[in-house]
Amino acid sequence: MRVPEELSPLFDAQNPFRERRAGLSDAKMIYFADGNNVLAPIYGAFVQNSPLELRKSEDGRCYIFERDEQLTEVLIPSAPGWYSRPVSDEPSDAAAKYVQMHSIMQLASMPFANCALFANGTPCKFCAVGYNARRKPKPVGKIARAVEFALEELPYFDITLNTGWSSAPSAGAEFIAPVASAISATCSIRVAAEVNVPRDVEGTFKLLKDSGVSAIILNLECWNDEARRVVAPIKADKRAVMRALEGALKFFGVGAVSSVLIIGAEPKEETVRGAEELIKLSILPDVLVYRPTDGSLLAAQGAQPPPFEDVRWVMRNVRELKDKYQTWKLIAGSAGCTKCGGCSITTELLGLPRQSRERQALAKQVYLRG
Ligand code: SF4
Question: Is the pTM of this model over 0.90?
Answer without folding.
Answer: yes
